[in-house]
Structures are given as structure tokens and as C-alpha cells.
Amino acid sequence: MSDEGRTTSRTVPHLSHWGAFQATVSDGRLVAVEPHPHDPAPTKLLDNVLDGIQHEARVRRPAIRKGWLDRGPGPDPRRGADEFVEVDWPEAVALLAAELRRVREEHGNESIYGGSYGWASAGRFHHAQSQVHRFLNCIGGYTFSVNDYSDGAAEVILPHVVGARGTGEIIWQGTSWEAILEHTGLVVAFGGMNPKNSAVSSGGMARHMLAPSLAEAARRGLRFELFSPLRADLPPEVEATWHPIVPGTDTAVMLALAHVLVTEDLHDREFLDRFCVGADRLLAYVRGETDGLAKTPEWAESLSAMAAGTIRDLAHRMASERTLISVSYSLQRTRHGEQPVWMGVALAALLGQIGLPGGGFGHGFASSAWIGEPLFRHPRPTLPQGTNPVASFIPCAQITHLLENPGGTLDYDGRVLDLPDIRLVYWCGGNPFHHHQDLNRFRRALQRVDTVVVHDPFWTATARHADIVLPSTVTLERDDVGATQSDGYLIAMVRALDPPGVARDDYETFADLAKELGVWDEFTEGRTARQWVEHLYEENRRRLDAGGVPVPPFDDFWEAGEARLPPTRGGHTALERFRSDPDGHPLGTPSGRIELFSETIDGFGYDDCRGHPAWLEPDEWILGPRAARYPLHLIANQPATRLHSQLDGGRHSRASKIAGREPIRMHPDDAAARGIGDGEVVRVFNDRGACYAAAVLTRELRPQVVNLSTGAWFTPVDPGDPRSPCAHGNPNVLTADRGSSRLAQGCTGQHVLVEIERVEGEPPPVDPHRPPPFVRA
Ligand code: PGD
């Protein structure tokens, strides 16, 4: 930035996962952030940008962990408790290049874990995962990861049930609000539709549309049935009947609804015959013919605490009007998370409404900003990642299992994966100390490897647990191009700020490493970062042009700040083409039909995911044996005041904390039973770990349920103690690290059993957003 730029104020367009905005910079400081003028419902998350970016927790210089510098690579229990030594870029690059060379030569490329899951920032070129994957591919590949933490169980089960194309229609497209508002009479929302979740979208959006759509639905009198232990899972203005069911029992309620439909002959037999396979096997189970246990409303009441009469009435209503059955992502982020998704499809099939306008099954309303919106299926600027010659991979949520089991195996979707011996972990653009479960166990696993490398703009717990920390710029410190998925905007992401210290773009770091390792030409193709941004835009412009969608040349686009793309489709309903012509548009399942019984899954022989959807008792729920010790069911959902752990130090996120600690919502009866008052500091614990939090008393959740959102930066009271409690309130010290099932191995962080006690005396201090201690070499 020029000196002139420092003394004058200027305003530039930009894009983030939480919306498009205009940033105003004066004297080198960010002074204002205004949402895009087209945004009907901007989010307060934008406020975090203001003071969250130019924050003291930024990584300013490359830093090497003292113990690694002194003793070299190798397992080390001091990881996470050690001091750091700041070095200059040439030294950091030389050290890391030498270590990459060593690991490749001694152990092979598969011993580098570069799965590096995470959201990072929204630009199309400076997308951190694309950068690290491209770099690692250039140097011979790495062990990679598949699926995601958001929707891991659904991503694996749905292709077995509705094929790859049907899965795409459900996960990437959904049923449009246009069709719902026009045709739907009843929405049965398992897990609700909470606008806080669609305030963010991977890659960003210019217009937040969920809240206006829900308001319009309310205005038109659309009726909602909310199944959730938390009332907040639908906004208060939506008229809804709230069923505060026992967490983890949605599948049982769905089975009971199915039982009513089948025993009262309200199901659509013609639909089942023509569009599905395996209905007889599932219905035999529903009636109790296979296991001697009929899935009656009374049976479901004994599990879910939802009155049998209410289940019966609801089944009758569902059969009498156009009904959308919606299942949120959160329900599948649990043990046996495949079941509510599969059973939701099955219930919609029994009603015979799949593919009819506004009817059938929906997944991810509110969990994803694009669900319900018109489609914008245009090519987007994309950095090619090259080819990975290494075949070994894991489902991303199995990182601890991978590190703990060199040479071991993992069941996954009918395969047995061989696990390599990981020596070097390379993370860029993610925060496993935010997103992973059972953090104490993860910490121990991470201590086994030789070297941990992290690129991040911030001293997150992940950076603190690394050996080599390389400071990244944040999105406002570099030029990039954004492309929204749900509303068709191309946004010029104009550099507005100088980075702190000597932080620099991940691209520049990888280019330097590539030079040291002899793959500079391959990695950079001779382009600077700015040339790449122009090149990707222009390449995409050509692709758009070929499809009859002209956009301006790069310079004009940059000057204008944005370009708009037209919708490619609207008013759609998921699986409507299959419904209209099942032979012409068969699903990609073995039968071409919806599989209510899957011979494929049955053939895998898994005990925790069978041939048809089923009630499988969770490991952790309030009617299970573990509840005798840990009687409160904690829901660790997405936070309302930040995106995951990002900008946790920003003002909107900080304002939600109580004396610096994360709020935990509790029912007043549960608080009274433990002598806990509103606002008091509590200790939340189980046998995996503990954290401190501040109690907020509310009747907007079911008794015996507590709610502590994710995203508070993991802050061990004593970093040297492997079982240290987190002073700040990160629920992932409590959650179990266990896959959804042997089928999907998805993240199960949403539910965990805990006990809570009042803290007598002084609670430990909390100061989570600071750099670690530095020493000289
Ligand atoms: P973020 O906080 O977004 O979390 O997990 P994820 O790891 O994506 O982390 C992104 C990191 O990227 C931040 O540290 C940020 O500073 C960094 N970053 C930003 N820009 C850049 C850049 O340009 N370069 C580099 N190098 N770094 C950058 C999210 C995951 O958490 C998700 S998606 C879900 S859905 C899961 N949800 C749950 C849950 O419901 N319950 C529990 N208990 N746990 C969960 N974890 C999962």
C-alpha cells in the first residue's frame, strides 16, 4: 500500500464466508465494515471483522517451537506447552524444506498428512486448502482426507439411498423456497432451521435469504413442527409447534410416524412400488416382524418423551397435505447420524411426495445458505490442484485414529483403509483444536509425530501445538476474486490492509518452499499472486462466455467491484426429474430407485449401520447407562456470534461471553438442583476432560439438556498438563472421538453427556487470544 493510501480513507469491496461487504480503511486501520447494499438480512458477524483482524493474536513472524529447534524432529509431549523462537523467512523456509526432504526420503510421501481440513477464507485463489494441496502434489503427494465435518454421515449414506445425482440434488440444490411457499402446507423440521447457521456459507454470499424466506412463510401461514431440544432452532416469528424431544431420538419418532402411516394404510403403496426398492424389508421392521418390537407411537414416546397422541395426529396431518420433511445437518453430526437422514427419506417416500412441488425430503435448510435458493450453476474460478500420486486417505474426522494407529486399519464405506505411519502433519487454513472431538486425546496423538507445520494468521491452539508456524495474511490483506454459490455474484476482493509484521500470503510461502525443493515452475507456472487472480478470472470468463454468460474483462470487473450471473434454475423441488420419469432419469443406486433397503450396505455386515434405517441406541443419551454419571445432555452446536473459531477475538463474539468465558445455556431447574445462579462460572466435565463456562438460565431448552456452542479458542489452564481443563469453554474437550458409524466415520461432535458443578472460589483466569511466550534461540 502506498504512503498516500495510508493517509487517505478509501472504501473497497470484499467477500467473506459471512457475506459481501465494503471495507473502509483510514491511516492503515480498518474503520468501517458495511454489508453489501443488496443484502436484506446482513449478519452481525461482520462486526467481528472490525477489531478481530488487526488483533494482537496475529502471527507476525515465522516461529519455531523451542524444543524442535533444539532437539530436531521427533515425538514430544511439550508440543502445546513450549516456547517459540521467532526466525526470519529464509531460515524458516530452509528448515521446513529440509524437513520435508528428510520425511519424504526416509518415510515416503504418504507419511505426510496434508488432509488439512478447514474453512479458511472465501477467495478463489488464496483458498488455503487448494494452495496446500497443490503444493504437496507438486512435491510428490500426501495422505489426504475425504468428506467434511459438516455433513460427513449424510455424504456417505445418501449415495447408497438416492445415488450420486440424487445426493447432489439434495445436498447442493434442495427444494426451493419458491416451491415451498407456493405448494407446501406443513414443514416438519427435525433439527429446525436456525438462521444463525445460514449466516455463513462456504465461499460467501451477497444476500442472506433464509430469514426473509421464513418471515414470508410465517406471513403465508405455513405451519412448522419443530423437533429440537432447543427452541431457538426456529426464529420466534415463525409460528411453530415446539416438540422439545429427548436429543438423539428423532429416528425413533420418524419410525413411529411411519408405523402410523403403515398400520392405518395411509402410505402411498404405488409410490413405494414404482420409485423405491426394499420397502417391504423396512416395513417389516417398522411393524416389529423382524425384531418383535413394533415401532408404535407409544414405543417412541418411551424414548423421545413426545406424546404418542401427538405423533399420531402429526402422521395424519402429514398424510393429508403437502409436507416437507426437513433434517438439519446437526442431526447427522452424531453417533448413528446416518439413520435420521435415511429414515427422513423413507418417511417422505411413505408419504409418496418425493419430487412433488414443495414436498418430500430436504436436508440442510439453514445449515447451508444455498439450500432453497435459485440455482447458479456456473463455472467458478478454480486453482488447479494437480494430481496426488499417494492413494492413502482417511475420512477427515478420523485424524486422531490415523495418528494413533500407524500400520493399522479403518473401516469406511465397505472398505478397509490401510493407515500409513504419519511423520509430518501439515495444516493450512483449518483449526483442528476447534473442529475435532476429544481434544485431550487429539493432543496426545499429535505429540507422536515428528513435525507439525501450521500456516495461520492467528495464534490459535493449533498454531500453539505446532513446531513450525508460518504467518499468513488474512483475506483483506491480498487481492482475490470471490464467487458466491447461492446468489451469483463475482466479487472483486480488493486488498485493503498491510499485513502485520512479515506475515505473507500462503502462496508466497509455498512458492519459496517450491523453489527450495526444485518445483517452483510447476507450482507457480511463472505467475505472481496477482497474475494468478487475473488468470483464473479470465479463464473463467472464457468458460462463462462459452456457456452464453458474458462478464466484463478483468480490469472492468475490478473497477466495478462485482459482476452478476443469472440464475440457471428456480422453483425446483429435489428429485422432481426422477419423479417425472424414473426410467429416463434413474438414480445412480444399484436399483436405479430409492433404496429403503440397501443390499450393498447390508453386505458390509456393519452392526452400526444396517441394510435399512433403524433405531440404534446412542452411546450417550439421557436414558442410557452413562447418564447415571453424566446426567446432562450437552448440545455443542454452531455458534451464533462467529464462524466456527474464526475471529473469536472480534467484538461480536466477545460481547456474547460472560467475563471472558463462553455461555452455557441451562434450564433453571437443572441449575437450581446444582445451586447454580445466572451468570455464575461453572465447571463442565466428564471422563474425557473439563472446561469452565458461564451459566445462562433459560426455559428455551428441554430440562436435562445444556447448550455450549463451539468456537471458543481452546485455552488449557495448564498447557503442560495433558488433561488440563479449558478455561474458556471449548466443548470439544468433552465430546467423544468416535465416528458416526463404520459406514461414514463422520464427525459426532454435536452430542455429549456431561455433569456441571458450581465453581467455589476463584475460577482460573482466562485470556485466550494472545500469542505464546517467545524466547531467543
Ligand atoms: P475454522 O474456525 O473456520 O474451523 O472447522 P474449521 O477448522 O474449518 O478454522 C479456519 C482456520 O483458518 C482459522 O484458524 C483461521 O484463522 C484460518 N484462516 C483463515 N484464513 C486463512 C488463510 O488465508 N490462510 C491460512 N493459512 N489460514 C487461514 C469447522 C468444523 O468444525 C465444521 S465445518 C463443523 S460443521 C463441525 N461442527 C462441530 C459441531 O457441531 N460440534 C462440535 N463439537 N464440533 C464441531 N466441529 C466442526
Strand coverage percent: 15-25%
Instruction: Give me the number of helical elements.
Output: 28
What composes the largest sheet?
6 strands, mixed
Mean pLDDT reading: 97
Global geometry: globular
Which molecules are bound besides the chains? ligand PGD
Characteristic key phrases:
777 residues; alpha/beta; 6-stranded mixed β-sheet; 28 helices; 17% strand; disordered N terminus; binds ligand PGD
Summarize the structure.
This protein is of the alpha/beta class.
Please give a structural write-up.
The protein is α/β, with parallel strands linked by helices and 777 residues long. It is built from 28 helices and 29 strands. A six-stranded mixed β-sheet has the order 5-4-19-18-17-6. Strands 25-27-26-29-24-28 form a six-stranded mixed β-sheet. α10 runs antiparallel to α13. The chain is globular and about 75 Å long. The protein starts with a helix and ends in a 19-residue tail after the last strand. It binds ligand PGD.
Fold topology:
Elements: H1 3-7, E1 10-16, E2 19-26, E3 29-35, H2 47-52, E4 63-65, H3 66-71, E5 84-86, H4 89-107, E6 112-113, H5 128-138, E7 144-146, H6 152-173, H7 177-183, E8 186-190, H8 195-198, H9 210-219, E9 223-227, E10 240-243, H10 250-263, H11 269-275, E11 276-277, H12 279-287, H13 297-304, H14 308-320, E12 323-327, H15 329-332, H16 338-351, E13 360-363, E14 393-395, H17 399-404, E15 409-412, E16 415-418, E17 424-428, H18 432-435, H19 439-446, E18 451-456, H20 461-464, E19 468-471, E20 480-483, E21 489-493, H21 506-516, H22 520-524, H23 529-546, H24 554-560, E22 562-564, H25 576-580, E23 594-595, H26 599-604, E24 632-635, H27 651-655, E25 663-666, H28 668-673, E26 681-686, E27 689-697, E28 705-707, E29 751-758
Parallel strand pairs: 6-17, 7-14, 8-9, 8-12, 9-10, 11-23, 12-13, 17-18, 18-19, 24-28, 25-27
Antiparallel strand pairs: 1-2, 2-3, 4-5, 4-19, 15-16, 20-21, 21-22, 24-29, 26-27, 26-29
Bound molecules: ligand PGD.
The site of ligand PGD has 37 residues, from helix 18 and strand 18.
